[in-house]
Amino acid sequence: MGGSLGKGGFLDSLTSLSSPLHIVMLGLDSAGKTTALYRLKFDQYLNTVPTIGFNCEKIKGTAGKCKGTSFLVWDVGGQEKLRPLWRSYTRATDGIVFVVDSADVERFDEAKMELARTMRTPEHTSVPVLVLANKQDLPGAKDVAYVEKALGLTDRGAVAQCHVQPACAIIGEGLEEGLDILYEMICKKKKISKLGGRIKKK
């Protein structure tokens, strides 16, 4: 994606990515994916029901380097019977948002397994991942360091580019910051891809 780089070099590519960027939002059921999606879309809390299938919304970045950038965000149902469908949504995606309920410690192993399964797929090995450590407002919510360890992300080889962002989707805390970091990771990946392409041509 994105046009060829001109005289401005790689720095220009930060603002020349073709829009909208394709983002897939995954995670276990009840993690807060749909709440996060509609908080980003409307900047307000919407009472949601479990997603059967998917929701798809176009949102615009409002902060940081991604300000003004369009994202097409696919929020895919997280119930166990729907998880085999994730792969069909993540093909050729620019980035993955994996939402975790930070207070539901009993399901961390399940979340770790599903995230690892997603990232083991060959076409996802270089896809940037933003982990939203959601529901930070709840008693017993675990911090970023705990979530990183619980999901097996402390091994830097686990995911090429990954960032764990504390968040509270109900009030929107951490969402814009996370989206901006994901955008920067996507830019970095695309610059590396273009550089690799140029080297191969030579």
TrEMBL record:
Cross-referenced Gene3D superfamilies: P-loop containing nucleotide triphosphate hydrolases
Keyword Zinc included in the entry's annotation: no
Positions contributing to Mg(2+) binding: T34, T51
Matches recorded under Pfam families: Arf
Keywords for this protein: GTP-binding, Lipoprotein, Magnesium, Metal-binding, Myristate, Nucleotide-binding
Gene Ontology MF terms: GTP binding; GTPase activity; metal ion binding
GO terms, biological process: establishment of localization in cell; vesicle-mediated transport
Protein name: ADP-ribosylation factor-like protein 11
Transmembrane segments: none
InterPro entries: P-loop_NTPase (IPR027417), Small_GTP-bd (IPR005225), Small_GTPase_ARF (IPR024156), Small_GTPase_ARF/SAR (IPR006689)
Protein purpose: May play a role in apoptosis. May act as a tumor suppressor.
Native organism: Hyalella azteca
Chain sites annotated for binding GTP: G27, L28, D29, S30, A31, G32, K33, T34, G78, N134, K135, Q136, D137
The organism's taxonomic lineage, starting at the top: Eukaryota, Metazoa, Ecdysozoa, Arthropoda, Crustacea
Family statement: Belongs to the small GTPase superfamily. Arf family.
Top-level taxon of origin: Eukaryota
